[in-house]
Write a structure and sequence with these properties.
Length: 396
């Protein structure tokens, strides 16, 4: 490939993650510090080496449990002297912090960027069971351009929106509940080997089929698990990455495109922005989907994972149900191990950065009991509807 894209000059050099609680006894700031200190130490760096901080979406509503800590608070508490920091609600979704941080490094604004994501919805739900409703995620939703069309009709949860995509995929492509169940079952089997996972007890197909219907055709086990947790990633300029204790994991390509209206009612109810993201990512690399050794794909709802498989070319469009049928292809010993830490369906809703953390864990062969076969290339993707971002990661 003749063109040299900026992300190729950036590598992941350290990772960290707090405990994952449902709920945690530790406040959100302490969880954030736990994850960030671990990531900095893992990269072999000191606080004074960090000259950039990023997260998504940041503290945009005075401590809202969806995003209680932003870069300003963290930089102040950690004593960073930063040349660049960033956060913002819009953009390519939960991986925006990584993408923006990588671009800041590529632009020469900074050398080492600490990217983090903290969520404290499990604690919030102890006192307000509606704390995770979409209407509480950011201020002014009812006055926004697209949201005004949903709240008057009691669309108060993402499950009501995403269920429409699932129903359409079932209708158009013959996808079945038994096929979709394999994502939840695979995640639960993987979570059983992850000491931090929220749900580790066995889950059978019968359990899945008998679970409560939340919004047809999505059942209880198709929905992710709220938790309290923080995850942190250190991005470094490629020349600086070589000085660290870990083999650098280079960002080979990113996807962040949106070539359709920014709304939940997309042009196609079986594609979403994920397909724009996938096309962009593969256009920036000579690697192909067949080179991917593990996939950590957003499972806020199981249908999103299936759509990401298709959008990233890991299986043909419309063939997601048949690709995951029986669960053998996406098992830890399958052709494409999927969500090896249990994902958000069983591991806990770490919201985007958890997928990057797990991709690096597997590439660095730190997975313990859940470690899969050695591989050099992994993909992480997060978001749904109009939000989507992906990272193609290569261990140098």
């Amino acid at each position: 490939m003749s063109r040299r894209y900026g992300e190729k000059e950036v590598a992941i050099t350290g990772i960290g993650q707090s405990e994952v609680g449902r709920p945690s006894a530790r406040p959100a700031l302490q969880l954030t510090l736990d994850a960030c200190r671990e990531a900095i130490a893992d990269a072999g760096l000191r606080n004074e080496d960090i000259d950039g901080v990023a997260c998504w979406p940041g503290d945009n509503n005075n401590g809202n449990p969806f995003s209680p800590i932003g870069p300003n608070a963290l930089a102040s508490v950690m004593g960073f002297n930063v040349n660049w920091y960033g956060a913002g609600y819009e953009g390519p979704g939960p991986l925006a912090g990584v993408i923006n941080g990588a671009m800041a490094i590529a632009a020469g604004l900074c050398r080492h960027v600490l990217v983090f994501r903290t969520i404290a919805e499990a604690s919030a739900r102890r006192t307000d069971r509606n704390a995770a409703a979409l209407t509480n995620k950011s201020p002014g939703r009812d006055s926004s351009f697209f949201w005004q069309w949903y709240t008057p009709f009691n669309v108060l949860s993402a499950v009501n929106l995403i269920a429409m995509y699932a129903q359409r995929h079932f209708h158009d492509h013959g996808t079945t509940p038994e096929q979709l169940a394999q994502i939840a079952l695979t995640c639960r089997r993987n979570a059983a080997l992850n000491p931090k996972a929220v749900f580790r007890q066995p889950l059978t197909l019968d359990d899945y089929m008998a679970s409560k219907m939340i919004s047809t055709p999505l059942r209880l086990f198709d929905c992710d698990v709220h938790c309290d947790a923080a995850t942190a990633i250190v991005l470094s300029r490629a020349d600086a990455a070589r000085d660290g204790p870990n083999q650098p994991i280079r960002i080979e390509a990113i996807g962040a495109a949106l070539h359709q209206p920014w709304s939940w009612d997309q042009i196609s109810l079986t594609e979403m922005a994920a397909f724009d993201v996938g096309r962009m990512m593969w256009s920036r690399t000579d690697l192909k989907p067949g080179d991917v050794g593990s996939a950590q794909l957003y499972d806020g709802f199981s249908i999103l994972t299936l759509i990401w498989l298709e959008a990233l070319g890991l299986c043909p469009p419309g063939e997601g149900g048949r690709f995951i049928e029986g669960g053998t292809r996406i098992a830890r010993d399958g052709v494409l191990p999927l969500n090896t830490n249990g994902g958000q369906l069983s591991g806990g809703r770490t919201h985007g950065l958890g997928y990057v953390h797990e991709a690096c864990t597997q590439l660095w062969e730190r997975g313990g009991e859940r470690q899969i076969r050695p591989h050099q290339v992994a993909v992480a993707a997060a978001g749904g509807g109009p939000l989507g971002g992906s990272l193609l990661l290569v261990k140098d």
